Every structure is written in structure tokens, then in C-alpha cells.
Amino acid sequence: MNQEPERSELNKSLGKGLSVLIAVNEFGSAKVTELVSETKLPKPTLIRILNTLIAEGFVAKRSHEEGGGYMATPKVRRLSSAFAQGSLLSQISQRPLNDLCEIIKWPTELLVPDGFSMVIESSNRHISPITLKYFDQRRFSILTSAAGRAFLAKLPEDECQEIITDALVASGEREALHVEKARVNSWVIEARSKGYSYRDYDSPIAGTRAFGIPVMFKGRPIAALAQPSLRAVLSLEHFEEAILPHLRATAKEVSQELAMHTKSDF
Q: Measured between alpha carbons, how far is 40 from 42 in angstroms, rounded to an integer?
């Protein structure tokens, strides 16, 4: 008689836990206040779920020196591995990515849009001779990541502006919407001008820089290649001369492979 109510409560608890895990993964490094705003859960409930996720190894608490907050662990990647392995784009991009690694040595990843995020679909980091400390999450903001900026830069203008506005509103930037929108647009304009994007980070290690270029199919961006590096080692000039042509060739090859598998023109 009581099985249905118990099952219903279990489903609700599972749903809350998944919503928190998704939010942590979305933010990359999330504060409690951000997670409360994103999940709409009471703070005591959120803390309890975070502690459970930490105990299960899906979430880690960052130290004060690292900026505090919570971040997803590499264990989260296992949740999406089955989907990634079955994706056509993941399958056809792996060989071109591996061939690219043989040439440029630096690791490269292919990311696809998902809502207001860019998600890693395939990567050659496992064969790259250059070992970097990577971000733990698979999901990055479409507004601030190098992959996201490269993707947005190739969208039709009205579609690009709609995504930027909706993403900023969803992140809670209502009051400073015009200021933040102008800032994001400056990044997109720069990416259009250069033909690629880049984003500087000081985590997971200081001096990190990520480059991004779009992957086009039938005149539209469908994904982006992102190549992490170190600012002190790979300057913008060196990237443009030695790396960018190979990234563009790989993006074109992925498009051609996709056209062959879908029997259409790229």
C-alpha cells in the first residue's frame, strides 16, 4: 500500500540530486548561492545533497586557496561516456583528432552545443605527448569558453544574439544585461575578425590558454575544436602560423566525414 508514495519520494530525491549535479557541472566551480539560485532548492537541502555527492565521489569541495565552491570530479564523465561513444560525430571525429595530434602534439577536443553549454564529445588527450592538467568538467559555458565563442561567431546574427540574451538571463544577469551582452559581443566580434577565438584561464593551472575554431556543416556551425595550451609556450603568433592551419584542416575533414556518413554536401 505504501510502495507508491515511497517510490515517488525516491524519484523526487533522485531528481533533486541530479539537478544539483548538473548545476555543479554547468558552473565548473560553483558557490552555494549560485547553486541555490540555479536549482531553486532550500539551502539546507542543497548542502545535504552536496555532502552526499561528495561522499559518492561525484563532487569535490575546493579549498579557500583554490577559490572555494564545489566542482564536479572526473567520475562524472562516466555518466556520459555511453552516449559519447554512440554519437556519430564522436565516432567520425576521433581519427581526424588523432591524426591532428600526430602533427601538432598539443591535445585537442571537439565540443558540441547543448543548451547554453559546449560539451566535450571527443578528444585526443589520451594520446597527446603533451600532458596538461585538464578541467574536470565536460561542460563549458557557451558564452565564455573558447569553443562557445567560436561557435557563436559563425551563427546568423539574430540567432547569436538570441542565445547570448537567453543565456545571460538564465544565469541571473538581468540587471547588468546590457553591460554583459556588450562584453560577450566583443568576444564574438573578435572571434569573427580573427577566424578563431581564445580564452585565457588561471586554472586548473596558471597561464592556461584555450583556442577555439568552428566546425561547419551545410553552412552552419555544428561543433567547435578547442585546443588547450600554455600562454608562455604558445603565443598567438605561433598559434596562427603553426597550429591554426592544421586545426582548420581537421575541422574541414570532420565536416567531410559527416557528409559522407549522412550522404549530403558539407
A: 7
**68 DSSP 8-state letter:** -
pLDDT tens-digit series, residues 168-181: 888 776 667 888 99
Q: pTM of the predicted model, to two decimals?
A: 0.69
Task: Give CA 101 to chain center in angstroms.
Answer: 20
**CATH class for the domain made up of 3-72:** mainly alpha
Give the helix ranges, DSSP H, for 28-145. 32-39, 43-55, 77-86, 88-104
Which residues of the chain fall short of a pLDDT of 50? 1, 3-5, 7, 81-82, 84-86
- Residue 36 contacts residue 54 (beta carbons within 8 Å): no
User: Which grid coordinates belong to 208?
Assistant: 592556461
Backbone angles phi, psi at 202, to 5 degrees: -120, 20
Is residue 223 within 8 Å of residue 111, measured between CB atoms? yes
What are the pLDDT digits (tens) for 95-119?
999 999 999 999 999 999 988 889 9
H/E element, 123: strand 117-123
Q: What residue spans define the domains of the chain?
A: 3-72, 76-262
Please report the pLDDT score of residue 79 as a whole number.
61
- The x, y and z cell numbers of residue 112, run together, are 558540441
CATH topology of domain 76-262: Beta-Lactamase (3.30.450)
Report how far residue 61's alpha carbon sits from residue 74's, in angstroms, rounded to the nearest whole number: 13
